[in-house]
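User: Here's a chain of 335 residues. Predict its fold as tokens.
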Amino acid sequence: MNVHNSIIAALGILSEDSVIATGADKMKEALVSRIDRATKGDKTTAETLAKPGGGLGGATVRALNLSFDDLERVMGKYMASKVRRAWTEKDRGPGTSSKGDLVVSGMQVGNVWIAVQPLLGVEGDPMRLLFQRDLTPHPQYCACYEFMTLAEEDGGIGSQSVIHLGMHGTVEWLPGQPLGNDRQSWSDELLGGIPNIYVYAANNPSESILAKRRGYGTLVSYNVPPYGRAGLYLELANLKDLIGEYRTGASDDLKQPIWSTCQRCGIDTEVPLFLIEEDDESRVTDPELPESLSSDNFDRWIKDVSDYLEVLQQRLFSSGLHVLGSKPSADDLKS
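Assistant: Prediction complete.
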């Protein structure tokens, strides 16, 4: 598990804009520098990298600097021309070094190359790429897949198959035919010639069909985490106790503490308190309760807050993460 954590930390470093900007040739140096900082106790660097060898278990950086001409050589002029039109010299998208190279990077572990799937690349509007038919993946996205599958003797990584780990990736959502890929569909261009094993959540069959239909994926299902009840904690639990005391008639002095706690928790925005019932102009926002607030209004509001807390308390959420190959405990099964 420590090796896994270190490799994840290393991949995070290789994905940083400042590291990408230096280019593929400097990436190993950047990782070694972080490992050195970790061993010296730098708290801003992943602690797992402080272990001998960075805790990487022999994994090494494997990265490529590629030009657009390199990409065109592999992709062909027709598809490359589409990319050139969509991504000009001034805006080549993410994953580009300060010299203009397309940087493809990952960690080599034995005969396995591990990489982070590139960002879609439309800053502020990632969904645009999914629905604008004449837009293309950015050049580095294309380069990552094209050179991952290109033979080593031709300058690529030489992968013979790909495993996409975890729901859901982006390559099967790229522009192209919605039914029946053709050679002008980007998911076909980037995945069409390689076996694609897709480790996908078992509870999302509708989107997994896209991974099969457009990404040629062979699905390996994994379980979802066990569900649990959200419950109430800290301030919310304290608020429930205060409301319980107030509703048993303990003291009117609890009104202000209840209101203050609701404001701290943000519940006053979810369950607003009005001087005049359901009149937004009379919504109470001040830290101190107004003297003109009637007891009837406050009591109605208290009931609404109590109902809201009950909904929060019973809400289902995913409890932790599912671990591949790990059987659920008795408590997980019960949950």
